[in-house]
Specification:
Region (Disordered): 1-20
Mean pLDDT: 76
Number of helices: 10
Order of helices and strands: HEHEHEEEHEHEEHEHEEHHH
GO molecular function, one term: cysteine-type endopeptidase activity
Oligomer: single chain
InterPro entries: Pept_C14_caspase
Distance between the termini: 28 Å
Protein name: Peptidase C14 caspase domain-containing protein
Pfam families: Peptidase_C14
Length: 380
Amino acid sequence: MAPGIGMPSNDEAPGRVSHQLPSQAAQVSVAIEWENIMQHEPKFFRYEKVAVLLLSWDDTCDDLRTDGEVEKLATVFETRYGFEVRRRKLNNKKRAHIQMVKHLASFVNRFEDQSDSTLLIIYYAGHGWAYVPEGDELRRELRLVGGKNEQKWRREMSRSSVMWTEAEKSIIGSEADVLLIFDCCHAGLIGRRSGDPNRFETLAACTADSKTHIPGDSSFTTALIWALEKLYSEKKFFTSSDLRATIMDHPHFPKNQYPQWDQRVPGFSPIVISSSAGEIPVTMPQEQAASRAANASYIDIRMHFDDDDDKNEKTMDVARLLQSLSQENRLPARRIDFLGKNTVWSSNQWRAVATLGTHWLEYTLRRKRRRLSSLETENL
């Protein structure tokens, strides 16, 4: 390396964090507590049409036996909320991925243009695997799988599995708002990715690095059905974020499981769900909300504490202070979101960046020396 040029040591690295990054479940737990303190008020508008697509596997692939819970969920959506429900089952007679794309495209085509205000709810129950593409170990994708027999799955990969990141392209850009609800392991992988011009939200049974329970008293879908019944009897309308919080209140829902709620485009108010008979206040048209989200600006600020704040006491103190300033109109921000804790830089991350920078600098200097050597040879 040339004299006078060097990379900073670990102590000089900006934002150095000496401890390990929290798990995704821990991050979601802090985000839930943050939202409870902030109490963001959604801007409501009423959907003229709500349609639900329930996706699962048929008996040849459904070793989890999800059919009973899915049928109960369909009944709640139809009889309580008055939503139009479509059930579709995947099988291994034809490629499941093609079946999924067909079901999604047909569903969107059937319902998205029936009115100016439509919500599409897409639910999935079954196995979910965290798939790491070959040659790209830093990226994980959600693969939906029929049956848990790994050897059988390897032989029939093209028939009994769906790569969700590819399949969901059938609904990206829909004129309707979209809410994905996935009950499978590693469901958090459906979360925040590329943006979408309309409201596009995801409610996952667990975080990307976690597993969920099989059908039964402690399953996510059982808690989802219970939450929908409870909210129906107690409220005329509620947000998708409220639904997540109520699911966690189910008496048998695991206390160490954190359903993950995400928005593809930050800035939209959460999706509002109501029964067909319910009346909700209309304060912001869909077009106005979309325009405001598209024109919004953001500031990301990092706060440094002197200790690890393992119990999140300082983090919640910050939330309460910001919420108070916002209520008193002393803070010109419409919404204050929690993006993560210790997620910007860790010592290992900085070391990786420093190493990459060193290699790049050495490569650049070698090229420069070769060019100079070539010029000197030409001048001889």
